Amino acid sequence: LNINLQKMKKGFIWPSVFVGHGELDPMQQEATKQQMMLERFQEENPGFDFSNAEFNGGAPDPRTFMGGVK
Predict the structure, then answer these.
(1) Which residues are CB-contacts of 34 (< 8 A; sequence separation ≥ 6)?
(2) Which of 12, 16, 17, 69 is the 20 to 30 Å CA partner of 24?
(3) Ramachandran region of residue 3, left (φ > 0), alpha (ψ -120 to 50) or beta?
(4) 14-18, 46-50, 61-65 — which is least confidently predicted?
(5) 63 vs 8, which has greater pLDDT?
């Protein structure tokens, strides 16, 4: 049995896969936001390498930053 869960809203961070199950702690949520932003930058700028990029401070919300996810 394989279950494939896909996000309906791109850029939204799931606190947990299923409601009521173990949620991400704040540090994991911030790391996930940063990873999503790097993926977004890579998608929007395919000629650049963002693999070693880092954010100073907190990462912005990927859903709303600079017009949101497309």
Answers:
(1) 54, 55, 59
(2) 69
(3) beta
(4) 61-65
(5) 8
Count of CB atoms within 10 A of residue 65's CB? 15
Q: Note the pTM of the prediction, 2 decimals.
A: 0.62
Give mean pLDDT, residues 18-39: 82
**Domain locations along the chain:** 26-66
List the one residue out of 38, 31, 32 whose CA is nearest residue 53.
38
Check residue 1 and give its pLDDT.
94
Q: Helix, strand or coil for residue 70? A: coil
Q: In terms of C-beta distances under 8 Å and separation of at least 24 residues, what long-range contacts does 37-40 make, across chains too?
A: 37/62, 37/65, 40/11, 40/69
**Distance between CA atoms of 60 and 49, rounded to whole angstroms?**
20
